[in-house]
Amino acid sequence: MGTPFVDPHFHLWDLSDGSCFEASSLFKQDGKALYGLNEYEAAVGKGASAAGLERSGGVVIEAMSVQFVDKPATELNETGCVAEAEWIVKHLNESKKAGGPSYNVVPCCCLEADNAGATLDKLLALGELGPAKVVGIRQILNKDPSWPRNAKLPELLDESAWHAGLAALATRNLIFDLQANPHQLAKARATFEKHPSLVVVINHIGTPTGDDLKDEPVYWKELEALSKLPHCYVKVSMLSYPTRGTDNVRGSNTELVDSCKRVIRMFTPARSMFASNLPVESKDGGSAGADAVASMFECFKQVASSFSEDDRQALFSKTAKSVYRL
User: Buried b / exposed e across 256-283, counting CB within 10 Å, b at 16+?
Assistant: First the structure.
């Protein structure tokens, strides 16, 4: 048996007609409308096995943040966020094999909406459907450059309504998955300092560009400041993003490997975790093509090689299991 790999960040969706997903905002992996648990397990299992790892469950992360950009937040909470989470929970419960690995869910909630509290309660109630539980929320906050919904929204980190929604999240013992640009991390840190009991997980090493990794002072300064907060964690993931425009063979990208090591040393392995970001990572793997997943795992191995065996266990499984209550 290989080292367990608990994957704290991947997506599932169904782009069939009549589903709750917006097909034009997502993509059909291998031309198929359904990217379900079986498809994910086959993809991650093959890559993990080749890297000497054993697929061992994980966390499904929302994709609603990039869909239905013209829907107001209140409506998206009612018709999109809850529906996506319900589909994921039911799909996991129906697809999970007896004795197989465990999965939990981090759906979306528009925290700035006046129905944020009620939406959080509906999401938590989905745990009654079976073993898969809602354990946190992700809301993509990237502004300037803006990820789809945020182009038409103000900077949410400046909005009192959003801060009220985050406070409501904290009172419900839910995790907050943060995806934001490097220049937004200072505001995020100031916010999270006010919520020391709220577990925060920074997605995709703070979504840096390739230029940010070249010792760009804002990125490294603010990421290090966030690492000083003991309730903040980081996912080493979406490594295709800072390597866009390159050959994207991430395992042989010395600058990328060294940057990931630097991030982990900031947060420590006990607050860091590798994540696949499938199926997005396989689509955005550049010229790595069909080998995108293998390239991703090779990068993880290169990064992990500088750490002790106990630290590698944390990076590949133990941190994710602890944070996401698996």
Answer: bbebbbebbebbebebbbbbbbbbbbbe
